[in-house]
């Protein structure tokens, strides 16, 4: 009798041949009748899921341990960095909003472009002036940070005041509400220019030298005009809160609600900006 040649092959080779034939049959069935193979495939997928989860467990555990072991100091640093980025974004948004309104009113006057400020310095409020009658705060940035007298200080809502004294590692800032502080402003709707001064009240300012006949309405926004070379143009100062007109007086009495949080807030922005004459290099001198 002739010997069976196939039976003399190694067992491992026979297993390989059987596996190949099985795979071919399964592939053929999956191609011709996929609805029959699909239930078996679903069962295999369900069986593999625990294996996949177990295989990914070391990676997920390492990420979880990394999050849990972050120090409190590191979390505070990340939080401070995000707050600083948000503050800068809100300050830039103020300028962009005002430039959009300015562009609508002065369409066609392309020879006097307003330039968005580029550089700012985040500072922290570390104290207040010893005199209770003065509205002056102290920030933790000074000459070593290139701070100079006259620079504008803002928060994320609007102008807060102006640097009046600079020391190596700190500066004093006079708030808008101080009785000795004044700045030139412009009304958003009518474009009327006036002077806003402090009253010694953190929640209220006064607008001066506006004729009683002027068209000023409650709720109108007030922006810095840039005149006088003390403040850059286009930053929010406040909102008209009350308008009183008296027949006996030449000027109206107008109360302004400051936009900035003059009585609170921990961080401020010191703005590095030029005066209106420098912001509009093509304007007639």
Sheet of most strands: 6 strands, antiparallel, barrel
Poorly predicted sequence stretches spanning 5 or more consecutive residues: 105-117, 279-285
Average predicted confidence as pLDDT = 79
Order of helices and strands: HHHEEEEEEEEEEEEH
Number of helices: 4
Please tell me what the overall shape is. Answer: elongated
Q: Terminal Cα separation, in Å?
A: 120 Å
Structural class based on helices, strands and sheet pairing: alpha+beta
Helix proportion: 25-40%
> What is the beta-strand fraction?
25-35%
Give the tally of β-strands.
12
3D architecture notes:
It is a single chain. This protein is α+β, with helices and mostly antiparallel strands and 285 residues long. The chain has helices at residues 11-32, 34-68, 72-105, 276-279, and strands at residues 119-128, 136-139, 152-154, 159-166, 171-175, 182-187, 193-201, 204-208, 221-224, 236-244, 253-258, 267-272. Strand 1 (119-128) and strand 2 form a beta hairpin. The longest helix is centred in the N-terminal third of the chain and has 35 residues, at 34-68. Mean pLDDT is 79; it is low at 105-117 and 279-285.
